[in-house]
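Dear support,

We are seeing what looks like truncated structure output for some complexes. This example has two components. We would appreciate it if you could run it in full and send us the complete token output so we can diff it against ours.
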Amino acid sequence: MAELTVENLHLTYGTNQILKGVSLTLNQGEVVSLLGPSGSGKTTLLRAVAGLEAPHQGSIKLRDRTIFDGAAGLDVPAEARNLGLVFQSYALWPHKTVFDNVAFGLKLRKVPADEIATRVKKALGELSLGHLAERFPHQLSGGQQQRVAIARALVYNPPVILMDEPLSNLDAKLREEARAWLRDLIVTMKLSALVVTHDQSESMAMSDRILLLNNGVIEQQGTPQQMYAEPQTLFTADFMGSNNRLAGQVSELQGDAALLTGEGWQLRGRAKPSAKMGAAGTGLIRLERVRVADGPGDNRVQPELKTSMFLGDKWEHVFNLGATMLRAHGPRALSPGKHWVELPREDFWIF
Amino acid sequence: MSAVSAALGGGGSRGASSLLTWRALTILTTAVAVLGPLSLIVYQSFLTAPFFDARKTAGFGAYAFVFADEDFWKALRNSVIIAGGMTLIAVPLGAILAFVMERTDLPFKRWFEPLILVPSFVSPMVLSFGFVVSAGPVGFYTVWAQDLFGVAPWGLYSIAAMTVIAGLTHVPNVYVYASAALKSLGSDVEEAARSAGASPFRVAISVSLPLILPSMLFAAVLVFFLGFELFGLPLVLGDPEGILVLSTYLYKLTNKLGTPSYHLMAAVAVCIVAITFPLVLLQRKLLQGARKYATIKGKAGRMRELPLGKWTGLALAILGLYLFVTVIVPLSGIALRAFVTNWGFGVNLSEAFTLDSFRFVFQEPTHTRAIWNTILIGTVGGALTVACYTAIGFATHRRDDGWSRFVDYLVLVPRAIPGLLAGLAFLWVFLFVPFLQPLRTTIFSMWIAYTVVWLAYGMRLISSSLMQVAPELEEAARSVGASRGTISRKITLPLIRPGLIASWLLVFMIFEREYSTGVYLLAPGTEVIGAQLVSLWQGGAIDIVAALSLINIVLVGAGLAVALRLGVKLRD
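Here is the complete output from our reference environment:
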């Protein structure tokens, strides 16, 4: 059952098109993240769902209740949409205590005072904030503020919870813990969540499905595994991981096998739909798939080692293949000079 | 090795000490300019005769006389009523206008904002005069209303009318603070309330209003103490019925005894400062309280404007009525009055048309000098004033020590001294200090008084420019080896240049508008339009007052036009 359905949404600021026909569905109990570089329209899309931006075309539905329909001129105001929204800045009301911040949504829904007290206490308890109820927001740490913001958005049981970069205001170390905690919270509370993020590893760790936005349209969507292992476009492939990119020319193309020729090297790989025989092409391979080999072999090149960096759990080697930089991971330091490096055919994508 | 470090150390400390003297000199000069005149007033108030009188002795005689005078208590009562009443009018109206302008989809907003601020740029003397010629017993609008409806149900010469007009003309003071507070209030907290289910009205009541309350309180205190500084309005509107407020009581004291009663004036002046200075300190405290609500800001959200829908008409009506009463009525009255020979019942506008008032103004040397001096003090004087303020700004910029705190308080002092008193105090300084006497009849005496009176206002402009310079830019210069002085000249000063030009324009407009500071300093050679108007009004030369007022409005308007053209923010 789709909790949220967005169809063909268009939104412009002046002459600037921000969303150019975006559609998505969010199913019950699912976490979907909106991923994309800055300016791709992901936050605008979230805010349009919340009712804080005004699209001019398309429709938004919560189950079977239409909350926006450009053609029918229907635009339910933000306060009547009954959605939970967590802001990037948390937007806690500085003049209200933690308790009052969380209770506000229930007060507006005319919930009796004693029930408000129990429900707020329960929500705060679930987020381990019980002891902070009487504090003011400025007396809390960043992580605590974030949890108050989440409690505030959850307490009135909205069908969908929207989160705008929920982790970006946390310290790097805290962020990784918080992302596991947040994923666990959403799953155990059986929430349906739409989460905006610009960090691909965060989106893969947290969500069931990823929608990658680029320039106002959805570039590709799918499960984290699909997005990472089977990108359909160069943009998706490039955005989803750490990569080597090699520019060359497609000199052979048969089925999904192709040969890319560059300056002083030839590599075979899997052709993606955009690859055209005889045209310029881009080869792309994830960093972790490149292997340093001990001699010549299939799909191997022999670049010059430029530098090696120790990353703790591994080494990162930087090679010069002609004018192109080629990076690879390895378990130990390498001696200076030329080395054989393998780019396995099945992992080398040609666009 | 040690020789090198000694040489380096010596060089460093020499640089620091020369800078220290420069800084100390700036701060001391400011202190003398601010505290000198004030202490002269206090000193004078404890004498039994003017300070130049040989028979003077120390004592409380002046206070005893003033406190025994029934008129003083009446004036004090009137001041309190007017100040309180105008606060009650200006604060809600200013807040409503700010909310409508900042948060709703009212049409033509861009055009309304400068208009709302107009009353704060036109001299109160000119505005009051405008109300008299428009809505006085035989004003244009009064006569028209009589002709059209048979009645004109308003009277101008009462405490109530003065309170209402003072309230309306001080709406911009509240508006600027309320709208700045709404601007700086991140839209995210309001959006959070909306997505939690609050209607726009509920958002305003539960979130926006409590968060801008500190700023509103600040503005309320500001308007209240400006109420004690009112001079032009009660002079023009209170005089016909003999209604006095503190400042006009002070002004009329001279005539009361027939002799220069400086000691009595000083005593009244001290009483006024005793009321305003605590209010200024309270304001400062409130401002610090207002910063408590600073929150983490998200991305600068493009806030979706609140649709007014069926309320658009009402909002436009409130705004339109406000602008009509406060801007159009007085200014149109002056513009008309300047071009007619006389006006009253049965006078035909086209028959009474004349340019004689302007001809007279441009033939009379005192008037042409007043116009010339007014332009000079705004342009050249304004530039020098901004230079002085900038020097003071640099003396405290990014330094948190005793000197800086001293300057912080020093700058507040002129705020508590109404222009009329400051002018009086400077008059005494120029009479008292022998080597300053030759400057008495030059425009310099006027300029220094203006500069001190507007110190607090100007310093706010300068320091807001200075604060916008990111500290890293200065620290970066320091780390590549620039001294403090070099940083100020080569890094900070060029960066704040646009801010300085904006400040110059604002100071120009303020100086064109100023009138009360010049009242006592007015002498052959120091004429400025503002003070000249007060003296002409006393003499009853209505035609000339109208013509000079119009010229004054045109000067301010020119400044305003340039400011808008350059995109200068009319408020900080």
